[in-house]
Automatic annotation (TrEMBL):
It comes from Desulfofervidus auxilii. Residues 3-25 form the Aldehyde ferredoxin oxidoreductase N-terminal domain. This is Aldehyde ferredoxin oxidoreductase. Belongs to the AOR/FOR family. Keywords: 4Fe-4S, Iron, Iron-sulfur, Metal-binding, Oxidoreductase.
Length: 397
């Protein structure tokens, strides 16, 4: 299965330099050096055992993958539907993780596929077509949302085909899904038109006039079709959680350096899943501090090379933080403490913030699109109401 560097334009930078791929040949490589290899292996085993025992990383993700979230987020009224018009999809069962599991098992696909040889979470899967032939990996929750409920589409096979096309054509299917949502709002095709959405992906690859518009992303698509209501921050489209129903993630979208990035400070863990405590998703109180803390943790965790999903277990297991620091020290021979880990995260965020300021971003870019503040989202009929001044405290590191 394919693996991706994710969103944010890295592929566009590679393309602009004529760089198609990076291939690493490890033949004859000696591997990394360890200050204390035996200690590192012992701590790693303990850390992995904690991952395997946790209900999310040891049960939910291996069985249902990231799409375990579909019904959870829908139940919370936070699933953006038909391009952020409502928070629940009436046909959510048809695109749920449970339904995806049934299809994969019935067709002889693979559940619990590891992204690399040492992965113990194994949240990926192999999705076959109706003839049992490989179609795509996953698809992941974000892909299914962006090209499913977001477009009023309830066909997992069509979404899996879109996922395969997005891999083959090299596009971000969250961004393209949002661009197609805008095209649907503009009447180019209708909500629910799966074949029409597939055709638009093909048009991107063919370079037709319409394909070039959609392939340029949501903001360009909206500008050309005269749509003022665009769900994007710093040029990047929002992912699969409506910030009116989960206000912590709204703070992350607005203030994270890359723009609307759920992985930069995943408050869903606490707001919805109740990991590491609980802050109600609809309240204003505590959301800025929660997002800030999670952004710092994520920035540091990314530096270690650990999977972000490790943080889901770590939120519930305080001892795992000690294990993480011991792993770092056994690997490099350092004398780090948890304080050093948080300082690392703060330093990363400061550097990224400084880059944005030098690139011309201002506090105006650190907020959500206006309609999130003005349009109540069914079923809770809530709006995003955290003041800009309060969100600016995220940058006080």
């Amino acid at each position: 299965p394919t693996r991706h560097a994710g969103r944010g334009g890295l592929g566009a930078v590679m393309g602009s330099k004529g760089l198609k791929a990076i291939v690493i040949d490890i033949t004859g490589a000696e591997g990394p050096e360890y200050a204390d290899k035996e200690a590192f292996k012992k701590i790693t085993r303990r850390f992995n055992q904690a991952l395997q025992k946790h209900p999310v990383t040891g049960q939910g993700l291996p069985r249902y993958g990231t799409n375990i979230l579909m019904k959870i987020i829908d139940d919370a009224g936070a699933l953006p539907t038909r391009y952020f018009q409502m928070g629940q999809f009436e046909e959510v069962e048809a695109v749920s993780g449970e339904k995806q599991y049934e299809i994969i098992k019935a067709r002889g696909g693979k559940i619990g596929h590891p992204c690399h040889k040492g992965c113990v979470i194994r949240c990926s899967r192999i999705y076959p077509d109706k003839n049992g032939q490989y179609l795509t990996k996953g698809p992941e929750y974000e892909t299914i949302w962006a090209n499913g409920p977001n477009l009023g589409i309830n066909d997992l096979d069509a979404i899996a085909q879109i996922d395969r096309l997005s891999d083959d054509y090299g596009v971000d299917n969250i961004e393209v899904g949002n661009a197609i949502g805008i095209a649907m709002k503009a009447g180019v095709i209708s909500f629910g038109d799966a074949q029409g959405a597939i055709d638009l992906y093909h048009q991107i690859a063919k370079g037709t006039p319409l394909g070039r518009i959609i392939g340029s992303g949501a903001i360009t698509t909206a500008q050309i079709f005269g749509i003022a209501r665009v769900a994007a921050v710093k040029g990047q489209s929002l992912p699969a959680y409506d910030p009116r129903a989960v206000k912590g993630i709204g703070v992350t979208y607005a203030t994270s350096p890359m723009g609307a990035d759920h992985t930069a400070g995943y408050t869903i863990a606490t707001n919805i899943l109740g990991l590491g405590g609980k802050i109600a998703p609809l309240t204003k109180e505590g959301q800025v501090a929660l997002s800030k803390k999670m952004q710092v943790i994520t920035a540091a965790l990314d530096c270690t090379g650990l999977c972000l999903f490790c943080a889901l277990m770590m939120a519930d297991e305080p001892k795992s933080w000690d294990d993480l620091i011991e792993m770092i020290n056994a690997r490099y021979g350092w004398q780090w403490t948890t304080h050093d880990f948080f300082v690392l995260g703060e330093r990363v965020l400061k550097i990224e913030r400084e880059f944005n300021l030098k690139a011309g971003f201002t506090p105006i870019d650190d907020r959500l699109p206006e309609f999130f503040y003005e349009e109540p989202l069914p079923p809770h009929n809530s709006v995003f109401d955290i003041p800009d001044e309060e969100m600016q405290s995220v940058f006080e590191l």
